[in-house]
Amino acid sequence: MVNGFLVCAPATAEFTTPGSIFDHHCSRCRQRVMLATSGQKILKEKPALVIICAKCYLTDESLLADADIRPAGPIEQMLDDLFRRRPNPFLRRN
Ligand SMILES: [Zn+2]
Prior knowledge:
alpha+beta, 4-stranded mixed sheet, 24% strand, binds zinc ion
């Protein structure tokens, strides 16, 4: 049984929010992803979630075919992350 996926933005996304971490990778393409504070909380509560980047999620038709798409966590917290977004400092790292 699949436990579900946590769809994450790539670490190279244009925006991030304070408190985001960059130490996880997409389980499919292995690119580095970012986890906002809401995503970190969700992963702590449901550690069996499979991390996948938005690109792999949107391009894998087998995933979309029988997807049961839900917000991973409380909308309020995800909106809070969205409203606190700022340019991604990870992009300036070497
Ligand atoms: Zn991926």
